[in-house]
Amino acid sequence: MLRYSFYLLVASSLSLATLPDPTGQAVAPSGTFNVMTISLEDYKPVESSSDKSEEEEGEERDVRDIVYLVMKMSEYDYDVVNVQENIVSAYHDTLYGYDRHPFRTTVFDDLFYNPGLSTLSKYSWIDFSYTEWNKRNDFEVSKGFTFMRVRITEGVYVDMINLDTNRGRKPKDQPARRWNVQQVADFIDVQSTGNAVIVFGNTNSLYTSLGDNIRLFTSQNGLIDAWVQAIGGNTPAVGTDSMECGAGVPSNISCEAIDKIFYRGSPLINLDSSGFFYDSSRLLLPEGIIPADRNPIRVEFQYTLSSGIRQSDLYGAKLSSIMLRGGNRLDGLSLTLASGESFTHGGWGGDFYTLDLTSEEHITSVKLCWGKRNKHTRIFYAGAVTNTGKNIQAGKMTRDCANATAPDGYGVVGTFGQSGKEIDQLGFIYAEHSSQIAPDHARP
Asked: In which domain of life is the source organism classified (predicted)?
């Protein structure tokens, strides 16, 4: 069954998907983090000679060089690292054996079906998925892309995608690669509606190439290429001379790489790149060799929480009623705004429970319980309480429950999550209630 991200908020399209931390504390208004993408494809370490066989010597060099790479990654404190072509077991075992990021993806045991995509992160995530390409031409490996919803801090989530598109410049390669890019763009449209997004990995694409469609991430998804932004915002023209980076460490960032980092913010999060870097010089081996197939790319990000969530573009998004539907589980929910506009998600099973709110009332906390049904996590229970003590509930409690409490002066104005015929995941958007917000005309 298809599951869809949803949002229930009139003024802003917001759709994250997790249970908020039950602290009831205000989210930090700003922060920074960085991401890096690095490909180990065709990595060939420096040559040397010894009495050992070439194969034995090469494997020992590989291990030593990957250890050095991990040490450098730790020294420079990378927050989220996307790795492509992490297929060779010696590379992977060493990388994961020495890396100290607390959150890391697992890899496929079967070499043929291993897409070689790994993520090392300081931050936890939810909704991890791997998707194979619908069309590909390099059949020697099974490639695709991974998706995860990364929790930077409480209330700050960013959808992150690691990809490795079809390689090559033969006639059948570019159409397959174009389909790869289109597949990711369509995926973002469905799964990341209104979310902050970062796509970073190997696109195998160049702006100057006649057959590539890498601009689709910008035209269809509204993503910004951090490299294009860093060089002044002028995208290289199709059909002009290639600007692809050559071998070795680039002297500056003016050359184009097939590894790219795209991003966008959301109505909730103002996300911006504060620096784009080819990190080859940082990670150089003592012999002067880059321990990767190409130049690793890093982008420094800074974010602030959008003032719109607490000011004018949510003023008037007053919740007038909430309806829950449930029996053994929470089947669905509906929110109705003071304007009369209604938003409904989930199924239509169970009994209906409705709570009408006066102009002075707002929802201050919601209790959620979840459990497994048919090996999938479902929301089994929801119960909401207003500032005046009114309450509404539906479904049945389980052993796994948490309370989502709005910060002081805030109330629930919207929800986010995933649903099908039932509710799979549910979270809440808070905004200052009307008594805390001055109308636009009253502000200086």
From this structure: Eukaryota
Alpha-helical (H) ranges within 253-321 are 280-283
In whole angstroms, give the CA distance from residue 329 to residue 349: 9
Q: From residue 345, how far is each of 36, 192, 227, 426 by CA, in Å? A: 37, 17, 39, 11
Task: Round to whole Å and give the CA distance between 231 and 242.
Answer: 15
Pick the CATH number of 319-432 from 3.10.120.10, 3.40.50.11540, 1.10.730.10, 2.100.10.30: 2.100.10.30
In DSSP terms, 99 is beta-bridged to none
Q: Can you read off the two tokens belonging to residue 338?
A: 């003071």
The residue type found at 234 is N
Structure-token pair, residue 104: 């890391």
User: For the whole model, what pTM was predicted?
Assistant: 0.71
Other residues' Cβ atoms within 10 Å of the Cβ of residue 229: 15
N residues, the chain? 444
How far apart, in whole angstroms, are the C-alpha atoms of residue 260 and residue 244? Answer: 12
pLDDT tens digit sequence for 145-160: 999 999 898 778 899 9
* Residue 35 contacts residue 301 (beta carbons within 8 Å): yes
Domain boundaries along the sequence of the chain: 30-305, 319-432
CA distance 238 to 23: 51
If phi > 0 it is left, if psi is from -120 to 50 it is alpha, else beta; for residue 408 that is: beta
Residue with tokens 């071998």: 247
pLDDT in tens, 264-294: 999 889 999 999 999 999 999 988 888 888 9
Strand partners, 377: 372
pLDDT at 359: 79
* Domain covering 30-305, topology: Deoxyribonuclease I; Chain A (3.60.10)
Instruction: For the chain, give the mean pLDDT.
Output: 81
